[in-house]
Amino acid sequence: MTANFLIGLREGLEATLVVVLLMAYLVKTGRRSLLPRMWAGVGIAVAVSIAFGALLTFGPRGLTFAAQEAIGGGLSIAAVALVTWMVFWMARTARSLGGELRSQVDKMAGGAAWGLVVVAALAVGREGLETALFLWAAAQAAGQSTQPLIGALLGLAVAAGIGYLLHRGVLKVNLSRFFTWTGVGLIVIAGGVLAYGIHDLQEAGILPGLHSLAFDVSAAIPPSSWYGTLLKGTLNLSPATTWLEAGAWLLYVVPVLIVYIRANSSAPGTSSGAGKDSARTSQAAEAA
Known about the structure:
Elements: H1 2-28, H2 35-58, H3 65-93, H4 97-109, H5 114-142, H6 147-167, H7 175-203, E1 213-216, H8 226-235, E2 240-242, H9 243-265, H10 270-287
Antiparallel strand pairs: 1-2
Helix pairs in contact: 1-4, 1-5, 1-6, 1-7, 1-10, 2-5, 3-5, 3-7, 4-5, 5-7, 7-9
């Protein structure tokens, strides 16, 4: 539940910031009449993301066990690749996001009515589809229950609340630092999702080593215990882990974390840029 809360919070805040920036710019440039187009695009993006999540959840159920495991494992690995790209992309482009959105709005605002709808739908929809895929993969890894969904919804609700406070100019957030540290958390979570995807592919018979265990701590950490559930829900830790799962986790988490932390620490103007990002967002919100 905690892992899904973090995913919902992080991804939800990215989408919320896009909406806040679009609203602020439209209002500041005297284009309030275009707000319904923006909200139409946001609505389309949300609907498509929900439909995609439903397809992932209910689509494979009529397939054989091996086919379900193969699809689940493949999608889990795809989700890991996507979230890895996303955290590095956000770290690289966060400071120019507002400028890119304003440029797209200027290009589309004077054209056909659907132009701004497309801008909003694509900007928010990208985050929504990423969120749906990674939440599904993380929920699969944590086990089938309502808790992953509840955690994700709570995260999205908190993100929406933060977005509203930013829009009203009530709250100032150090966005650079927030995205840096949540990026670290997502990389660790993604490592667990990757290991789970590898396990699915082993169960499907695509990868070998299903019964070759690196460790089995089921006696010390029973899967049904509260602490076993907690570790499974936050780190996707499987008490019985194969060598291939353990190797995949280590080969992903350790180098990706090192590269990510170095990239963030060596970025020009990282510390000062964080404050500037926060100030720019607050000023844009106040302008709305």
